[in-house]
Amino acid sequence: MKALILTGGQGLRLRPFTCETPKPLLPVANVPFLLYQFQLLRRHGVREVLLATAYRPEAFRRAFGDGRKVGLRIRYAFEPSPLGTGGAVRKTAEGIDRTLLVLNGDVLNDLDVGAFLRSHRRRKAAASIALVRVKDPTLYGLVETSPEGRILRFLEKPTWDEVTCNTINAGAYLFEPSAVARIPPGVPYSLERGLFPSLLEAGAPFYGFVIGGYWMDIGTVEKYLQVHLDILGGAVPLERALRRRGRFLLEPGARLAADAAHDGEGRVLIGRGARVAPCVQFSGSVCVGPRCAIARGASLAGCVVLGGSRIGEGARLKDCVVGHRCVVEAGASIGPGRALGDGTVVKRFSQL
Ligand code: GDD
Ligand code: MG
After folding, report:
1. 42 Cα to the center of ligand 1, angstroms
2. What's the mean pLDDT when you consider all of the chain?
3. What domains sit in the chain, N to C, each tagged with a CATH number?
């Protein structure tokens, strides 16, 4: 089976970070997010991946080329003007005459692809959607099903008075060619607002498959930070060889002063070639990107610092995300919810 990953969104809710880097390529625990999806696909025997790109397509090619180095065969489709989730599937899936797995490019979850496919086949579905239970369905596509799992209603971003259940579209689908053929070619079209209502109207066999376990759409700054805290907190296995020192996980070439201190729960990941000077205090889960330099006496709590940034002496970071190649000068402090775009310079003793 081939998989198609939707990677063409502009990631507007994840700005400033997506101004430079497309959302699926943003580092999550220091590796491009898509690697988690690639890992999942490989684990389930999927070797051929189609990336449906629109925003900054060259960045994907640069990162993965033909896919050999990530153990896959990757082909790229490009929409010069974005075709929406449906239009992207129609264009990218041209010529595919089998069941196709489609994934949103910003969801972290350990989907059991085999079980999903078995459920799809058993029900002779034209289309199946993986569903997950969440507390706030208004942020997603609400999916109402019958006790047998048949989809009765699909409502993208419902208002609270339209919420009738807690199952939402988890961003993974199985489509038969007959479902893809319903998408009009060459024009912008949405799966969520176009194809799914049309399948329901036509009475096509359209089913939900409820999944459990960890699930996260990394699409906002808050969730981008949270996915790091979850991974480093142990909710998702970090399948990489890392050097361990107590609560510290070190990538090759990372240097951590012997007196680095940690309090609270969680772990601290220090990226390739990063340096942490003496007397630095860490608290909770923290991700330090490759080639970062953390100066003496700084304190970092529940935060993410992307590659190449420098954190000055005595600076304090709490519950925030610092972009690539930023400079936070000595004594500055960055507070909860702050997001510094790539290359930001925060002057000495500033308070954000
Ligand atoms: N190629 C291409 N072209 N890809 C696109 C386009 C486009 O025009 N527009 C969006 N995408 C990609 C995005 O890059 C992302 O990977 C995926 O489609 C979903 O877009 P988001 O912008 O992240 O949508 P969302 O998070 O608001 O909602 C979607 O995901 C939820 C689950 O995370 C919907 O599918 C919801 O129904 C769902 O619950
Ligand atoms: Mg999303």
Report:
1. 22
2. 97
3. 2-221 (3.90.550.10), 241-346 (2.160.10.10)
